[in-house]
Amino acid sequence: MAEFDDLPRAEFAFPGPLRDRLVSAVLDGSKTSTTSTAVEYGTEDEPFPQVGARQVVLDSAEKAVAVIETTHVRHVRLALVPWEHARDEGEGYASIAEWRAGHERFWHSEEMRKFLGNPSFAVIDSTIQGPHGPIPIRRYSPLPGTTPVRSAPIVWIHGGGFFKGNLDQPESHDVALTLAAA
Question: In whole angstroms, what is the distance from residue 82 CA to residue 96 CA?
Fold first, then answer.
């Protein structure tokens, strides 16, 4: 695919069996959506996907096997990803809960933590019930087998009431990462 050498690369997961399954699903048409974490783009200083952008899909041998085009982009918390999107990833999950658990396992895998340069704790999104409805929360927890630096939890409450912005703002994530590592 020399004519597409100038296109950005699309690499699903890491080279190996999972990438091979995902690339096969792209090629047979069963994978028409994908999911990434926002932090992945910051790690490689890549822009977020844009509608109309094309990418060359690479297999585990780094061989170009297809060209894909982005037709829709949504930025949502993991807990808010709809079943239709999860189903369209073509990975065969039977429920949205199973899909989320599978993705959390991947994002907390040793390979991903090494790629992100963040091997010692997990980031877990959830909600708690507030007086006016659900409130999004984010927990930073030491991974099993790691020694936490602190023996007591840190509770960081944003004083601005989140009237503007959300948990995915870089400031919120960066401050929490710094506190978790301190």
Answer: 8
Rounded mean pLDDT of 133-137? 76
3-state helix, strand, coil in the chain (%, to 5): 35, 20, 50
Place of tokens 């079943």: 83
> How far is C-alpha 69 from the chain's CA centre?
19
Residue 6: what residue type? D
- Higher model confidence: residue 182 or residue 144? 144
Q: What is the DSSP string of 124-177?
A: EEEEEEETTEEEEEEEEEEPTTS--S-SS------TTTTSS--TTSHHHHHHHH
| Spatial CA neighbour of 69 closest among 15, 18, 4 | 4
Query: Mean pLDDT, the chain, as a whole number?
Result: 80
Residue 140 near residue 180, CB atoms below 8 Å: yes
In whole angstroms, what is the distance from residue 113 CA to residue 85 CA? Answer: 25
User: What is the token pair recorded at 31?
Assistant: 């994978």
